[in-house]
Amino acid sequence: MSVKRFQRLLRIREVQENEAAVGLAGRLEDLVRAEEQRDQLAEYQGLYFKAILPNDARMLKQMAQMQQQLREALQQQDLRIAAAQSRVDQARSVWMERHRATLSLEKLIERRRRVESGLEGRRQQREQDMWATRKAYEKGRKEDSE
User: Fold this and answer.
1) What is the mean pLDDT of each run of 10 residues along the chain (146 residues)?
2) 3-class DSSP assignment, residue 71
3) Coil, helix or strand at residue 55
4) CA proximity to 85, closest of 132, 24, 12
5) What is the C-alpha to C-alpha distance for residues 112 and 102, in angstroms, rounded to an integer?
6) Which residue, 45, 52, 114, 120, could crosslink 70 as a Cys pair with Cβ 3.0–4.6 Å?
């Protein structure tokens, strides 16, 4: 396969790598949002725990229910964060695989260029040698005919 064909394949691989990078960035944004939501819930829970306890039993019961709901919400958010982290890890793995494929193809193209350059150099040298031989032969024939 020629270097030009490999370069076309490289462009395709680079597009795939960029798409994987965009996917990874999206998963990272999702993770950051989930972590920010958890931080907000934790802050809200902290405010509730610091609140002054009411004297009314009904209000005290409502406050306890709210604290329980906040604990459950935090647990659910922790699960969302774990799922988001898993998606980040998967997206990172895909990107790394595509990145390695791109790097491998770049190295292959470079090796092919060096090989083709060496072959071209030898071809030019052979042509120059043939030209020099032909000139020497023509010169020898001229001298013999004189």
Assistant:
1) 85 96 97 97 87 82 90 96 98 97 93 84 85 82 72
2) helix
3) coil
4) 24
5) 15
6) 45
CA dihedral 86, 87, 88, 90 (to 10 degrees): 90
CATH architecture of 3-121: Orthogonal Bundle (1.10)
For residue 14, with 0-12 CB atoms within 10 Å meaning exposed, 13-18 middle and 19 or more buried, which class applies?
A: middle
* Cβ–Cβ under 8 Å, residues 106 and 10: yes
**What's the rounded Cα separation, in Å, for the pair 127 and 137?**
15
Predicted TM-score of the model (pTM): 0.70
Q: Which among 73, 13, 86 is positioned nearest to 44, based on CA atoms?
A: 73
How far is CA 34 from each of CA 54, 74, 76, 83, 92, rounded to the nearest angstrom?
Answer: 33, 11, 11, 10, 18
For residue 24, with 0-12 CB atoms within 10 Å meaning exposed, 13-18 middle and 19 or more buried, which class applies? buried
